[in-house]
## 1
Amino acid sequence: MSIRKLFIANRAEIALRIVRTAQRMGITTVVPWHARDRFGPALQVANETVELMGDPPVSAWLNPEALIKAALDAGCDAIHPGYGFLSENAEFSRAVTNAGMIFVGPPADVIERMGDKITARNFAAQHGVPVTPSAEEESDPTTFAERAVSIGFPLLIKGTAGGGGKGMHIVREASNLAQAIASSRAESQRYFGDGRLLAERFVEKPRHIEVQVFGDIHGHVIHLGERECSIQRRFQKLIEETPAPMLSADLRERICQAAVTLASAAGYVNAGTVECIVSQTGEFYFLEMNTRLQVEHPVTEMVTGLDLVEWQIRVAQGDVLPLLQEQVQWQGSAIECRILAEDADAGFVPDTGKVLLLQEPQGPGVRFDNGVMQGASIGADFDSMLAKLIVHGANRDLAISRMRQALQETVMLGVTVNSHFLGRVLAHPEFQVGKTDTDFLERNKESLKPIPLTDEDRRALVAVACAASRDPYSTTVQDPHLSMGAWRN
Amino acid sequence: MATFSIHGSDEPVHQARKHSADILVDDKLISVLPISLQSFSVKQSQHPIKIYAVVHGDSVYVQLHGRATRIDRVDPTRANAGANLNGGGISLAPMPGVVVSWLALPGSLVKTGTPLLVIESMKLQMTIEATLDGMLEELPFAEGQTFQRGASLARVCPDSPNGAAV
C-alpha cells in the first residue's frame, strides 16, 4: 500500500527534512503548527499546514488523539513521528494503525520490546550482546537503593522510558544517591510520564558508538554503519561523525554485527539505532535502542548516499529493504554539529531571543538542515536545537576543515548560538587526532575557552557597531554610499 | 560621540564617532566599508576583515571570524545604575522558565551554596543556590509559576556583621 498523504507529527528542521523526501517521492505533506511556533521553514514548504492547540505549546505535539484527528481531518493515510515527542511511544504507533493509517516507524510491539530500556537490556543480554551491570527499580522498589549500591560506584541513575540525557544522574558516592533518585524520578515523570528507574554501572570516559539498523516486514535486517557521538554535554550529543575515528575494523564489525543480531532477534522493522558505549580498553556494552530516526542520521546519509527517510517510508509501505547488506557502500567521512541556542561559554545555558540575521553556510559537501527562519523568536517553549550542520569529505581531515569553514560562515545573530564553540572543538588537537570520549568537553574545558579579542578586533567591531547604528551623537552623518567612495582596496 | 561596551568583556568601554568617511574609535581612525545591508569590510594592519552586523534597539549584534558578540550603546548618564541594587543577595533568572520546586522556605537562614529552588527552562533543570549567608527573605515565584529572563527568583538578606541587631 503506498502512502499518498503524510502527516508529520513534528516541527522545525526534522519536519522540513521529512517534507523534502516525501515530496520528492510524490507524497503530499501536512505539517502542524502552534500559535507560538507559526513560521518554521517546514510550514513554508509543506503542501498543507494545520493548527494545533495546547498549553504549554509543546503539549500539542504530545497529544496522540489531537494529532491523529488532525491527520485524519486532512485526509492523510500515514503519520511520520520524526524524533522526540511521540516517536518512541508504542501507544501512539498502535493508535495510528488502529485509526487506519500507516505509522512510519516500528510497529507498537517492536517499540514495546526495544524502546523500554529494561526490556531491551534484558533482551540484549539474552542474545549475547554485552550489557553493563545494573539494577531495576521495578523488580523490588524497596531494595532499589541497596541493589544500586551493590553494583558499585560510579553509578548512573536514569529513567527506564527516557532518552536524550533527560533525567540521568551520575552518582559517585552513596551520600548522593537519594537525591539523584528523587531528581531522576521527577524528571522522568515530567518528560516521559513514567517515573520508573534503572541504576547501572557508569563506565568512565567511554566512547559513544551507535549503529544504524534497518529492518523490513519481510524479515530482513541490515546495518548502515556506525556513528560516533562522544562529544556530549549533560548527556546530550553536540557533534556526531562517521566513521568513528580510532575504532578498529574488527571492533567496528563486531559492534555492527551485534546490533544486527539484536535487531533481527527483536523482529525489528523500520529505522532504529543501537547505542553502545566502548570503554577505554575496547569493551563494548549495549546501552539502549532508539526506535526511530535519529537526529544525527544525516552523517550516515552523507557517507552511504542513501535517503533514510525514503527507506522509512518504503519499509512502512511494506516494501523490501532497497539494498542487501553487501550492497551498502560507505565513502569518506561525515560530521554533524548541532547548532543550539545556548551560551556554551556560560555553562551551556539556553538563550532566547530573535533571529535578526540568518545566513546559511554553503559550499562543496555542506548540508544545513535548518529549523528556523530569519525573524523567528526563539523562546523557551521548545528544544534549543535550531539547526544541524553536516559536512562530508573524502577523509576526516577534509571533513573537519570543511566543518570549520562552514561553522565560521554560519550567521545566526540575535540569539546566542554555539557555532563558535563548536568550531573551537573541531580545531582542538585532541579532536583532530580522534581522541574523543564523553569526557572530552569537561577535560578540555580550559583549552576550549575563547581567546580574548585583540585590541584591533575590538576597535573594528565597535567601528562597525557605530557605522551600523543610527548615531544621534555623531558629528557628521554620512550616507553609506558616500563612504564607499573613499574605499581603496 | 557615543559609548559602546562589548558584551561579556571586562575591558573598559569604547568611545566612537563618525569622522567623515571613517569611524574614530578611541582616537584611532578606522575605515569601514559597507558591503551589504548587514556586512561591512574593515581595513586592518594585515588584511581587510568582514564583519556582520545587525542593529536591535540599543544593541548591535556583530560577528567576526564566526564569533558572534553583542555590542551595547551605553548611555553614560545611566552607566552603573542598578549596580548596587543587587547587593549580591538577589538571584536573577538566567533564562525564562518555570519554578519546579522550592527547596527552602522564606524566613529560613541559608548559607552560601544552600539550594533555594529548582527552575526549568528549555527542558533543563537548574538549582538556584544562595549567593551569600543570610536570611531567605522572599521567593517571588511559586511552584509552577513562569518567569522571564532577569526576573528576581530569590532574595537573601545578608547576615549583619558580628550578629549585631539591625
## 2
Amino acid sequence: MIEEVYLKDFRNYEEAGFRFSKGLNAIIGDNGLGKTNLLEALFFLLQGKTMRGSEPKELVRWGTEKAQLGIKVSGGAAVEKRIEICEEGRKEKGKLGGIRAVFFKPDDIWMIKGGPESRRKYLDEAVVEIKRGFRVTLREYHRVLRQRNEAIRAVKRGSGDIGLVRSWNPLLARWGRMVVEERAEGLKELEKEMDATTGRWGVGKLEARLYSSMGDFFGEEDKLIRKIERMESAEIGRGMTLIGPHRDEVIFNLGGRSARRDCSQGEQKLIAMVWKMALAETIARNTREKVILLMDDCLSELDRRNRLLVLRELEKWEQVFVTHAEDLEELKGFNKIFLGRENRG
Amino acid sequence: MLYAPPIARLVEELSKLPGIGQKTAQRLTFHLLKVPQEEARALAEAIVEAREKVAFCARCFNFAQGELCEFCANPRRDPSLVCVVERPQDIVAVERTGEFRGLYHVLGGAISPIDGIGPEDLKVRELLERVRKDGVSEVIMATNPRVEGEATAAYLAGLLKPLGVKVTRIASGIPVGGDLEYADEITLGRALKGRLEL
Ligand SMILES: [Zn+2]
C-alpha cells in the first residue's frame, strides 16, 4: 500500500506531503484545491504515465522549472521512488514492483452515454491491461486498416488497382478476427467480475454484449474473406473499409434495460464504476499485483443508498482513494484527508 | 558552433546517412579526426571501391560485382526455384539457413499504400518476365513477416498463379512485425521447409 507521497511544484501544489492508511482514504476539499491532481500524482507515480496521454511536462506547476514527486510504498519491504519532471523529460530514482493503479473519473460515464467509438476505446484500453499480446494485435490490425483504406481511396480516385485492395483482405480477416476474439475473451472475464458486484448490489444483471460487423466466422477465415469481398463496391463508393472491429459495438444492458437509453445518470455512473472495479479485480487476479483504486468524485450524483453500496464495495480493497467536495456522514470511520488553502500554489 | 570548412563538410556528408543525426555525425567526425591517417584513407577507399564496383544483378537485383550476382552466375544453383525477398540483406538470412539451393529475386521493398509504394516502384514486372521466360517451377515468397510483406506476397501470388507456377509462402514462426534479417537461422530454416502453397 501507499504510505506517503511528497509533491513539489506539481500541478497546483507548491509543496505538500501526505500520509495514507490502509483501506479507504477519503480526500475532502472544495473544487480547485487539488483533489484530482493528488490522484493524478498517485497514478503517475504508480503507472509511469499521465492519465490522458498528455506530456509529463504539463504536470509542472505554472511558472516553475521542474516538478518533484516522491512515494513510499509498503507491503513486504518498504520501497521508495522519486520522479523529477522538467522541460527536457524526466528522471526516475527507485522502482516500485508489484503495485499498480486503476483510475475512475467522472468522464468515464461517456463509456455508456457516448457513441460506439467511445465504448470501443474503453474496451480496448481494458483488454490491453488484461490480455498479453492484445496491444500487438490491435497495432497490426490498425496498420492493415490504414493501408487498406489508402488502397481503397486510390481506386475511388481512379488511380488505384483493385488487386491491391484485395491483397489486404486475408490480413483484414486474420487480424480483424483476432481483435474480435480477444475483445470477446476480455469482455467475458470482465463480465464475470461485474456479475459478482451487481449481484451483491441487487440492481439487476449487467450484460455487456459485443456485436461484430464480421459476424460469427471464428475459425472460418475463407467465409470471412468472401464476406469482405462482397463489400467491395460499397467500400469503394464510401472510400473506406466497412467491415471489421473498427465498426463493432458493445451494448450494455442493466436489468434488461438499455444502459445508454433507459438508465438514469446515477445508474450510468454506477455501471462505469462497476466496469473499473471489474478491471481492477481482473488485473489483480491475472498479474498477482496489488491494484490501488483511485476514484475521483465517484460519490456525487448518487443518492445515499447508492453511495453506501459503492462505499461497502470499496472498503473491501486493500487501499482505495476517494475524493469528494464535502465531508459526508457515510465517510465516518474512514481515514480523512482535508485539503486546505495552504496547499494551493 | 562553427567548424573549419573541412570538418563542417565531413559532418554534413555523414549526417546524410540513414539513422545518423547531426549529433552522431559530429561524434563520428571527431572520432575520424583522431584515427591514424592510413585508417581514415582505408575507410574512404572502401567506400569509393564498393560504390564503383558493386552494382545490381541484371537478373535478380541482388548486389553484384559483374553483370550477374554470385548466385545467378553459379551453375550449381537451381534456376527453377526462385525465392522472392524485399532487400539484398534478406538473402544473407536465407543463405545462413543452408536450406535453399535456388535463385533469388529482390523486390526492393514491399507494397505500402500509405507510403505511396506500389507495384510499379518494385521489381514486379521483372519477376513476371522471369517466370514466363526462365522455366521457373516454384516461387517462394520470403517477404518480411510484417503486414506489408504479407500483402505483397498475396498480391504477387494473384499475378503469378495464372502463369501456371507454384507459389508458396514461408511458414510462420518468425515473430510478427519482425525482419527476416534478424530471424535466427533455425527458425527461418524451419519456415522455409514448412512453406505452404498460396
Ligand atoms: Zn542475381
